Amino acid sequence: MRKMLLSLALAGVAVGAASAPLQSKTASTAWAGGEILWDSFGVPHIYAKTEAGTFYGFGYAQAQSHGDLLLHMYGESRGKAAEYWGASFESQDKWIAANDVPSRSIAWYKAQKPQMRADLDAFAAGINAYAAAHPDKIDPAVKIVLPITGLDVIQHAHRLMNYMYIASDRRVLVNPATNEAGGSNAWAVAPARSASGHTMLLANPHLPWAPSLLTYYEAQVTGPGISLYGATQVGLPVLRFGFNNDLGFTNTVNTISGYTSYVLKLADGGYMFDGKVLPFKTVDKSYKVKQPDGTLKTVTFTQRYAVQGPVFDLPGGTTTIALKVAGLDRPGVLQQYLDMGKARNWAQFEAALKTLQVPMFNIVYGDRAGNILYLDNGILPKHPEGGDFAHWSRPVPGDTSATLWKDVHPYEDMPKVFNPAGGFVQNTNDPPWVSTWPRVLDSKKYPAYVAIVGPMSQRSQMSNRLLAGTNKISFDDFVAKKVTTTALMADRMLPDLLKAASTSDDPDIKQAVAVLSAWDHRDEPDARGALLFETWALIFAPNNFTSQANYAEKWTLDNPLETPRGLKDPAAAVAMLKQAVAKTKQLYGAIDRPYGDVSRFHIGDVNLPANGGMGNTGIFRTITWGPMKNGERTPVAGETWVSMVEFGTPMKAVGMMSYGNSSQPGSKHANDQLKFLASKTFRTLWISRADVEKNLEETDKF
């Protein structure tokens, strides 16, 4: 402990009472002279005299709002979670070690520009400063991770981006279709479609609500060359969703195939490659596991490497693969996001995009000058031999150099839509082909492995339908469209279902017809048909409402906003309605139970009737519900960070962090924004310092 405190003191941190300043008199001037103004929703507004100072303040702020989560994640990203907290983290630590994340992170840290290294060190120092000044606010179980270094910050970003989003152990070793990343909505509307003549931008990620690597944090950062408002994931020192006075950008998860698994043919202690037996390169590795009695057990293993990368045995033991991940030679993901946030015009923003350091994510952009962009961004392997997306998403033969990719596609190759005639771009995690309407991208002009063609989700169809047309959209319209709770699947399917069921004499069917006929297809608290329809829809379209087996007409790119549709077998659909009646009664007690009785926005002592629903039923205001527990169901994922801006003078900006801006125990900001989610309203985002000072909760100086 004494060594830890000494390290903190040497980093310019005052150790001791909670009233201590953020730094001591010996602190580096690289971040001195700044302050954090905390508004009444727990949002930090950081003002600093240097770039490193903005990072220092941001690190301090994240530690105050999410300290326990932050330190736990950094311990995990070090690959020492099992050493700190026990055997439940052993497989995770082994995955990190086997993929050389710790050693590569050292190289990545050294490869940063000197200013970025100083920024990372400052962010870490800010975290350490908070922990030293407020030791009573940090869970003793995570204090073992302290002190944090700049290397920890880059290692966490590396693990999150490359070995969670792109190549998690579950995705590589168990199921390539695993989605570790969640979903999102994004819109940009051009001046030609805006009633005010100004660009509008929506940022709306839909990640899990439980505290994790995917938890969002809202902040404003102001310093030399940067004045950015937005959000990022806890642990990252840069904003991934942001806007300044001139432009804004957001991300949605895309379907990029950023790694390749190669099936090896084992032979004579090695593996076959181009007709020869090659020996594995081997490296002995180890990690520690904390035992129930507190002692540490060292676990050693031998990691094999083939020409493609590290080697793993898949569950079952009959298949051995080698893993090649794109982007491991590109350490600038944090630099690219910083440069995107610093940009003040399209040319500067595109220059940042062209560095292609961010390994995945669609990027949607809008600016004051009237430009809008959709980009299917990512570090995508180039496969000269062809093959489609499904082929490269599964393990491919690894006994030949013909499948071994050596390069990645440049920015210029990636699908993008810039200033389309329809006046908007959108994405809801679908492939890029219908990112605006009328459609402008032709999938045939791109390699088949870039993305699947379809089917297009009904949420994406609803997104397009909300914006398509020639009408002018006001900012109030923009906000109202965002909170649409109408289920497109209900609009499309209920007329046929009710017609097919109208002649039934079955009492259950008659009651169901009456309930569904009276419902307006919106998932609102007082809706009495929403639960029954959702239950029927999941029976009709299993696999999370995505199966098209029971539709009369499947989805087609030629008619992407009107398909799938129709009942393939009307009698079978009515029989499914009979099943849904029984299932709805079983789950919710009655088929006409008000939606908000059981669907709740509930965190701590705040428990409110909910709106919004399952995105795959075509609901734009997405809430993914967990199972019933204690008479209610609460969100697993869905609405998290939302910002909507219009680049007028003055700017209009509203938003919300659904689950609040703090996960620390006892924080009043852990549930203070649920009221906006329940009422379908938003906070005014306080951009100017004058507005922040009018709504000030506390101030920290450093």
UniProtKB/TrEMBL annotation:
Q: Where is the signal peptide?
A: 1-20
Q: Which residues participate directly in catalysis? A: S184
Q: Could you give a GO molecular-function term held by this entry? A: hydrolase activity, acting on carbon-nitrogen (but not peptide) bonds, in linear amides
Q: Which InterPro entries match?
A: Ntn_hydrolases_N, Pen/GL7ACA/AHL_acylase, Penicillin_amidase_A-knob, Penicillin_amidase_dom1, Penicillin_amidase_N_B-knob, S45
Q: GO biological process annotations for this chain's record?
A: antibiotic biosynthetic process
Keyword presence, Hydrolase? yes
Q: Which Gene3D superfamilies match?
A: 1.10.1400.10, 2.30.120.10, Glutamine Phosphoribosylpyrophosphate, subunit 1, domain 1, Penicillin Amidohydrolase, domain 1
Q: Which family does it belong to?
A: Belongs to the peptidase S45 family.
What is the name attached to this protein's record? 7-beta-(4-carbaxybutanamido)cephalosporanic acid acylase
Species the sequence originates in: Sphingomonas panacis
